[in-house]
Write a structure and sequence with these properties.
Helix 6 (about 215-225) packs antiparallel against helix 9 (about 260-290). Helices cover about 35% and strands about 20% of the residues. By secondary structure, the protein is of the alpha/beta class. It is globular. The strands form 2 sheets. A 7-stranded mixed β-sheet has the order 1-2-3-4-5-6-7, with helices on one face. The structure holds zinc ion. Zinc ion (ZN) binds near residues 93, 95, 171 and 196.
Amino acid sequence: MRILLKALVIWALFSCTLHAQEGADWTQPFPPHRVIGNIYYVGSEGLASYLITTPQGNILINSSLEKSVPLIRQSIEKLGFKFSDTRILLISHAHWDHCAGSAALKELTGAKYMVMDADVPEIEAGGKGNFQYGDNPASRYQPAKVDRVLHDGDEVRLGGTVLVAHLTPGHTKGTTTWTMKAKENEKTYDVVIIGSPNVNAGYKLVNNPLYPTIAEDYARMFQVLKSLPADVFLGAHGNYYGLDQKYAQLKQGGANPFIDPEGYQAYVAAKEQEFRQELAKQTAAAQAAGK
Ligand SMILES: [Zn+2]
């Protein structure tokens, strides 16, 4: 019993530090660059932020960590745009690594913050109430007021650009996948920015009292991702879509490497398989435990 208890304590400590820890590359600067059309990458090595420029001001997706804000600002200015032209702030989902900087960013730019309905309570409570990390102080962030509550399929419009908010829940209850059209060389492309398909370490997919519909939500999310027309494949972290390799290719010139419909389909299929395997494992364990 004592040994079991000790093991539990060690596990709890370990899992807490794990969640509290920053990814080593989260604050590592990354060269800002144009992705396609009016979409620019202004994130770090590990945390993706996108600037969508329009004649009526700009849209930023993901404020990332509080300390990411100055990095994002530098990236925007390096590209020749004004940080203060940021009119609208959007996020991939209500986890601190994508939204902790939102309060500061709103304060500095006056941008309107628009968030998917199911993620709004957490955003406004600074991360409190998250089904997985709610009690962990390390996952908390400065609460930010949401100016517009989005619902599945809502459009965010600015200066001729239209972004569509797709509810793709599971990873958080309001995880949002953004789609838009981008023009390059007289052609129009469908862009998808995946909110997150990941089942994090410790996520309970079976008998989860804090998120009873989690498994159905993941399944629904994969249906949505598979149904979206996708030419340009982007996501909340650069490693979803192979940012490093694609940026290296971009610098070499030639075809735009971010146009990658096959890569998108393959990524979504692999992530769905990972989810199905984890669900099967947890279902078997629950059955063995007689629940
Ligand atoms: Zn997350």
